[in-house]
Amino acid sequence: xxxxxxxxxxxxxxxxAGPAMAFQCPxxxxxxxxxxxxxxxxxxxxAKEQAAEAKKLHEAGKHAESVAKAEEAAxxxxxxxxxx
Length: 84
Hints:
By secondary structure, the chain is mainly α. The chain has three helices and no strands.
């Protein structure tokens, strides 16, 4: 019974996760862009490149990958991202 309830919850929540992540991507990318604006050090350059990749992934509808790439970029500059 418990397994069935968990399965129903996952099936129901699954389609909602994609749209929620879609709104997260631009927010995370903007934070990285703001944190690296005007900076030319290697870590910032790497984070800018990863943020650009995250933006392309978002535009391609690959939101989970986009969020993961944004988190990777933030980590490279020790930035704590604020999520919705």
